[in-house]
């Protein structure tokens, strides 16, 4: 089947709500695609994962293959509330990089248990299987490969290769030569690059070096160097209004015309 990636959340750092955020949305990062009947590929488990939950209806077995970019709270805070965890008919395969010698299971167990959450991740009724990030992973007809990028405590970027190729580099700070090189290699000739642009160039230079996020200039630089077909800016700052994101998108288009800004409900063919 032809898969389409849905942007379920594209806000950085924390979720927001209100009139200022209606067009781009206020949920934190999550992307998902149904790659086979009742089999969903998911990137990150921010609050946007609730839109996937609304699609997990009907009787019978279902499967989720979830890849985490990293373990900062805004990228995992939707996971404990996912109703599929309580469904014995659901199988979840979770992929994540180790952190300071701990596996993804050990990291998540540290935050998903009482008193921070009533149910431990070890008590879920779904079949939950943890996997290390090694080589490429086949998920239906989509192949998922990865590269280590630049962010405090580490982050992973993913390339989804189906009939088209989509690279997701949320929470990457441009400017580290080695990490930027790995991202260029990962994104080489991709159909779409989804790239962090939380800050403006002025904010990045003045106050936020080393915070783990890029600006639109850094995103455009990678897109041009890697020869991608389309650039989508993501990880919008929680204080950034719809109109301000429009402005950032417009500036980026001045250098890379095929630039858009991610919004909840955006669909990207894979």
Strand order of the largest sheet: 6-5-4-3-2-1-14
Extended strand count: 14
What is the C-level CATH assignment? Alpha Beta
Query: Strand share of the residues?
Result: 25-35%
> Helix-strand pattern, N to C?
EEEHEEHEEEEEHEHHEHEE
What is the CATH superfamily classification? Ribonuclease Z/Hydroxyacylglutathione hydrolase-like
Structural class: alpha/beta
Shape: globular
Measured distance between first and last alpha carbons: 11 Å
Q: What is the name of the CATH topology?
A: Metallo-beta-lactamase, Chain A
Q: Give the overall pLDDT as a whole number.
A: 94
Biggest sheet descriptor? 7 strands, mixed
Our Rg estimate from Cα atoms comes to: 18 Å
Number of domains: 1
Keywords:
6 helices; seven-stranded mixed sheet; 270 residues; 14 strands; Metallo-beta-lactamase, Chain A
Explain the overall architecture.
This protein is an alpha/beta fold and 270 residues long. The chain has a single domain, classed as Metallo-beta-lactamase, Chain A (4-Layer Sandwich). Helices cover 19% and strands 27% of the residues. The chain has six helices and 14 strands. The protein has helices spanning 49-53, 104-109, 177-187, 201-206, 216-226, 242-253, and strands at residues 4-9, 30-36, 39-43, 62-67, 90-95, 127-131, 137-139, 142-148, 156-161, 165-169, 192-196, 230-234, 259-261, 267-269. Strands 6-5-4-3-2-1-14 form a seven-stranded mixed beta sheet. Strands 7-8-9-10-11-12-13 form a seven-stranded mixed beta sheet. Strand 7 (137-139) and strand 8 (142-148) form a beta hairpin. The longest helix has 12 residues, at 242-253. The radius of gyration is 18 Å and the shape is globular. The model has no long low-confidence stretch (mean pLDDT 94).
